[in-house]
Give the backbone structure.
Amino acid sequence: MSVWLPSAPCTPGTCLERTGPVTALPRAVGRLLAVTALLLAGIALLPVGRLIPAGAVRWWCRAVVRASGVRVRVSGAAVPTGGVLLVANHISWLDIPLLAAVRPARMLAKSEIRRWPVAGWLTARSGAMFIERDRLRALPDTVARIADALRGGAAVAVFPEGSTWCGRAQGHFRRAVFQAALDAGVPVQPVRLRYRVSGGEASTAPAFIGDDSLLASVWRVVSARGLVAEVGVPEPVAPGCHTDRRALAATAQAQVWGEHTAARHPAEPYGESDSFPAQAARDVVRPRRRRRRPPLLVPQPPGVSARVR
């Protein structure tokens, strides 16, 4: 395990709690079947996915979320056309269709997903790009591939926190992916994701964190009652507003956090280097090596060898 690998302190045991009523079992099973049917329809259309209009893709993504029993509220600015880097906070597996409901985009996914049964194949066929999070030396190539896609007019969706959080706490944005937007000269579109119950209280039920299983997370969602997904779309950050990725990431992070009152954890102890990318691999913090103390010689009377203590 790399010390640079992004992680979050959120775990199912400490963060997940029910904040609303539970729906009846037959309805929960019906929702699960509806979501499965929509996913199977999407799988069947993958070979011709690039020919499907963006409006139809957005409708399908909203239908997946709505079929799971979650209402969707989208507010804010219009997402720019052409190449754009979409960045959002990461809480749930629902984040992916919600982002696509705003604008269909190529996802940046962790390389481990590629090895998942079925899901890995589907993710790859959807046009996703993969990042090897535990190999810092592979980061420049990943950033270059993202920049090429952005120059070609594609939208690329990224979760810069690098890991899922429970929704009541959030992680700091990693800066490397913002270099791709700077290199390609495209805008950055922040997207704010929140999950609440109908009464307005924040809900952690949709969170997919720690060693939680996908099936357990899906069941919590379909069995909950009154879940609402709020998608806020602030004004995009135009190209040229910032000349370095540190400032660009800070601006996008501030727009995603907004007035949210969730706990803001300090930055993780192992982060990225400022001088990207050549210095990056050398700046990973390594464990300090323990220095060996020289042996202590105990003085002895003449004719007796010194003892080592």
Remarks:
- The radius of gyration is 24 Å.
- Residues 260-290 have pLDDT under 50 and may be disordered.
- The first strand starts at residue 71 and ends at 76.
- The chain has nine helices and eleven strands.
